[in-house]
Amino acid sequence: MTDLAGLINVADFERAARRRLPRMIWDVIAGGGGDEVTLRRNRAALDAVALRPRALVDVRQRDIGVDVFGQRVALPVLLAPTGFNRMAHRDAEIGAGLGAASAGTIFTLGTVSTYTPDEVAERCSGPLWFQLYVRPSREETDLLLARVDPSRYSALVVTIDTAMTGIRERDARNGMTVPLRITPRLIAQAATRPAWALDFLRGGVGRGGQGYGETRRHVRRVGELIRSSARQVTEDDMRWLRSRWKGPLLVKGVLRGDDCERLLQLGIDGIVVSNHGGRQLDSVPATIDALPEVVQAVAGRAEVFVDGGFRRGVDVVKALALGARAVLIGRPYVYGLAVGGQRGVERVLDIFAAEISHTFALLGCTRVSELDPSFVAMERVLVPGSGPSRAREHV
Ligand SMILES: Cc1cc2nc3c(=O)[nH]c(=O)nc-3n(C[C@H](O)[C@H](O)[C@H](O)COP(=O)(O)O)c2cc1C
Are 59 and 366 in contact (CB under 8 A)? Predict the structure, then answer.
């Protein structure tokens, strides 16, 4: 049993998860598309933003909560959808949902999940969003949405950056499949990761064990779901979804300001500036660099969120200063889940909350609404590992 209190930052969780997971699972979670330039760029660009503290502010009382579509969340960090969490831990999406609930924030359940939307809604008391991969036919999308109870899932997030699956060469080399096929290679890797192997076998879901009957059927469909999820989303799809879904509707995967007017015309309520954690098209910009143009184009007419590479409280505060309503995290909570199930997710969120509050104190800020672009200075950064690395140029 990993001593969670001994893991003091997200990087510790990352290392602990790497030690716990078989190589091929680790690579699915940690890896990116193509040469992973965007994966690295997300981090490099966040590091390149400098914080500018304000002098002589009384910071004894600080509130890091935010309103998201009228709902108060305890910290400006939400959980992004990360497909098939069962790979990391048998508690899967239930562990993530409960972890988010106890931290007072939102868990976004993905279309590609181990547990069905009904099960997650039933077992997790906290606020939930649902992420949609538009299905191959409108009938299928309609059937899927019929299972997403709008009284429990307050917003619908439509992912639009997966017209095709990204080039994931780590997975190709590892012979990785989802759902997991028990291959000699996986057995060999699992032998060196007994804690994970035991947890995986004990989980039972999809393998005739403890899982709800409903979930067992669902898991068998996961492979098919993933294959059919890579699909173009059209303006027509968005018009239909707008008429079908009454609550807040978000699109996830926007990187350009000049796309926003069209999205707003379609009636969307929120935008997630995202490059899918560097897992889809490689060489696209870091999300922190794309955020300002999106915020400017949206001009307060929708709520803007951002994800990709956020690992520290300081990272989150930079995005808030640049106009994000909140930040979504993917891998950090999956690492938490891998290392400690629900408790691991809670601990990762606790770390973010403590670091954000600490950043507020040293920055001279007492609440999110005080943050504005004057608190940051942007630098241009070359991605490490490509050319004269780390050379920085002020703009
Ligand atoms: C293992 C994994 C699975 C993911 N699955 C999905 C998914 O099913 N749908 C989706 O919209 N995004 C998915 N994403 C992308 C995340 O929602 C999010 O955009 C990304 O993880 C943010 O970057 P970060 O991991 O650096 O925080 C996935 C990411 C990871 C790491």
Answer: yes
